[in-house]
Specification:
single chain, about 400 residues, FAD/NAD(P)-binding domain, 5-stranded parallel sheet, 23 strands
Length: about 400
């Protein structure tokens, strides 16, 4: 009797999981991939669009049926998951019953979570680089600045790609060129965390702070924004201080889309708790991968939200699902190995890599900036676009 496996979300994790499942499951089994638009991009591409090195059309990922042979692609908005009946309900589509479900819905942006942020976006005094259109608009606005102060503001944690806001600060300074080097425009980064990328440990965080200081970028840790006043261009913080800006580059608050479609199995913040090695949830026959999860590390902190982990987890889940369905598949586990690039401008990138599941805390090393790591990022982008944009 054939089985049905449903994958929710066509980001890095969902695409990789659907392709991996097709490889390990028999041809008679049905694999259904559901996404609202089947249009996306890599996170690293967003920063390069913000810098002006790419256009949105150059890096858009539009997976085709030719790239996913044997996978049914359903364009629909997921309405709810009935875990008791093992059924996915979508808007304007028939319910789909599953024997196994993989949730890869990613993380969504929620500007309404910070008072004044939506108004700052609407008035044009703030921008964000977590969508293609947002990154392109921010590039134009930064290019138009002749003087003043740019603040790169992390509103809350967790957020996608722990290095992204600091890469953004480097690349904004790089784009400004002489306007930055002359002091006409300043760049400062503010984050609620005491150091950048805290899960990687203080050595990595302090090294990144030193890199920013060497470029003249101000770093301000332990600063939680409570409100933005767009008319006066002021950010208010929980410690009672305020900061003036001419333009904001914001990491908006993130939320889990899964919270809107599930009623059970969620943690207190809406992110889905999973087994660190198998990615199984507390619900029968359901796994979750990538940014929508809350995978807790031995030091009690959550695994960072990054594409490299979503891709690695997709292979684990494909084999775990196959085993669950009764097939003879290797018992592959998530190891926690991962790497993260930190773009600093001028064709240079640093690289943090190591094991995040190592007890008692992640063991991560930050490699010095090099053209080689920048080239590695570019190759990852080329490979990903070529893999899915098959015509």
């Amino acid at each position: 009797m054939s089985k049905t496996v449903v994958v929710l979300g066509a980001g890095v994790g969902g695409l990789s999981a659907a392709a991996g499942l097709r490889k390990v499951l028999p041809a008679q089994d049905r694999i259904v991939l559901i996404d609202r638009s089947f249009t996306g991009s890599l996170g690293l591409s967003l920063l390069w669009v913000m810098r002006g090195w790419r256009t949105p059309d150059q890096v858009r990922v539009r997976p085709t049926a030719a790239a996913l042979p044997g996978v049914e692609m359903v364009t629909a908005e997921v309405d709810r998951i009935d875990d008791a009946e093992q059924t996915v309900h979508c808007q304007h589509a028939s319910p789909i019953r599953y024997d196994a479900l993989v949730i890869a819905l990613g993380a969504a942006l929620d500007a309404s979570a910070l008072p004044g942020l939506s108004e700052a976006f609407e008035s044009g005094v703030a921008g964000q680089f977590y969508t293609l259109d947002g990154a392109a608009d921010l590039h134009r606005r930064i290019g138009a600045l002749e003087s003043g102060r740019v603040i790169v503001l992390v509103v809350g944690v967790p957020f996608k790609c722990p290095a992204a806001p600091f890469e953004a600060a480097f690349l904004i300074a790089d784009q400004l060129g002489a306007k930055y080097s002359s002091g006409a425009v300043r760049v400062d980064a503010f984050t609620p965390d005491a150091l950048p990328m805290p899960v990687a440990g203080p050595d990595v965080g302090n090294a990144l702070v030193a890199m920013m200081e060497a470029k003249g970028i101000g770093f301000h840790g332990g600063k939680s924004a409570t409100r933005i006043l767009p008319d006066t261009r002021v950010v208010e913080f929980a410690d009672g201080t305020t900061e003036l800006f001419d333009h904001l580059a914001v990491v908006p608050p993130h939320q889990s889309p899964a919270a809107a479609v599930m009623s059970t199995g969620l943690g207190p913040t809406g992110w889905i708790p999973v087994d660190p090695q198998t990615l199984a949830t507390s619900m029968p026959s359901v796994w979750a991968i990538g940014d929508t999860t809350a995978l807790m590390l031995p030091n009690g902190k959550p695994l960072p939200k990054a594409a490299v982990f979503a891709q690695a987890q997709s292979e684990v889940v494909a084999h775990q699902v196959a085993r669950h369905l009764g097939y003879d598949a290797p018992d592959i586990r998530f190891t926690g190995e991962g790497a993260c690039y930190v773009e600093i401008g001028g064709g240079l990138a640093a690289k943090g890599e190591g094991n995040f599941l190592t007890p008692p805390a992640p063991h991560i090393a930050l490699r010095d900036p090099s053209p080689t790591y920048h080239a590695e990022k570019a190759q990852e982008e080329r490979d990903w676009l070529a893999r899915w944009n098959v015509r």
